[in-house]
Design brief:
There is one protein chain. Helix 5 links the parallel strand 5 (139-144) and strand 6 (182-189). The chain has helices at 20-31, 43-57, 71-83, 107-135, 157-176, 195-201, 207-213, 223-234, 252-257, 261-266, 269-274, and strands spanning 11-15, 35-40, 61-65, 89-92, 139-144, 182-189, 245-248. The protein has one domain: 3-Layer(aba) Sandwich (Rossmann fold), CATH 3.40.50. Helices cover 47% and strands 13% of the residues. It is α/β, with parallel strands linked by helices and 284 residues long. It has a seven-stranded parallel β-sheet with strand order 3-2-1-4-5-6-7, with helices on both faces. The chain is built from eleven helices and seven strands. It binds coenzyme A (COA).
Amino acid sequence: MFQNDLLRGKRILITGGGTGLGKATAQRFLELGAEVYICGRREDVLIATARELGERTKGRIHFRRCDVRDPAAVEEMIAAIWTEGSLDVLMNNAAGNFLARTEELSLGAFQSVIGIVLMGTLHTTLACGRRWLQARRPAVVLNVTTTYTESGSAYVVPSAVSKAGVQALTRSLAVEWGNRGIRMNAIAPGPVPTEGAFSRLLPRPELEQLAKQKIPLGRFGTVEEFANLAAFLVSDGSGYINGEVVTMDGGEWLQGAGEFTALGRQLTDKEWETMKPKKPLPTK
Ligand code: COA
């Protein structure tokens, strides 16, 4: 899909890069010539991913253990990375989510998800942004949001409020920092199967069919499709895209939003026939 050196010379940090979408994107960025840092909370996972992707792509990958909820730990990580050279791209991918009835959630549950998704994104973005602005260096931030930022969603309220905040951050800083060469965009993925997210959000396998019926394309997205979109958005080729949230969901949210969609899908061919005008439609 891209020239093999699309991201050559770019130094990129992917938070939550040890697993799931972050790991798949790290692999794609390495294949396209980037030097990649991944961070996450579990060192054993990071070690395994860095080794696996390094061997598979022959690219330069580094890892740092860091819980993005902790501003001091983020500052320490970013400072350490900068001693090896500035980053060019920050991808805020680390997330946490669970299906739960909101009234049953503890304050700690809210704090955990908001801490990772919203505050974590803020911590890394500020730590990198301040350095880029001071050095007058162009850079790119790519955030991962979701298709329910505008609508909200029942049963994932900590995630919904956090991702809505990340979307507001994306658009706000696209304007505030754009005049100094920092682009801010986001991807809003629909369902893309990964171990971490799917075991939490689709607890029963038979719910998969139900989930697919909500998608016009009739299937889930793939991590490769996500990673390719991410590669495009962090590359210089998308240099005029700023403040954009690109939805990648097979049309899922539009199908849910359209007033007559569900109704129309229930009608039989015979019923469609009866609704046609009695006299034939003009051919010209
Ligand atoms: N339902 C309700 N509450 C939950 C929960 C669940 N499934 N899982 C955790 N919590 C609550 C805990 O009870 C705790 O609250 P408390 O302190 O008031 O008791 C709080 O959340 C933190 O839980 P903890 O076990 O300390 O987890 P954590 O903060 O280390 O991590 C997640 C929480 C969400 C990040 C964890 O589930 C995780 O690691 N997820 C993997 C990443 C992920 O979710 N990816 C999907 C992205 S879409």
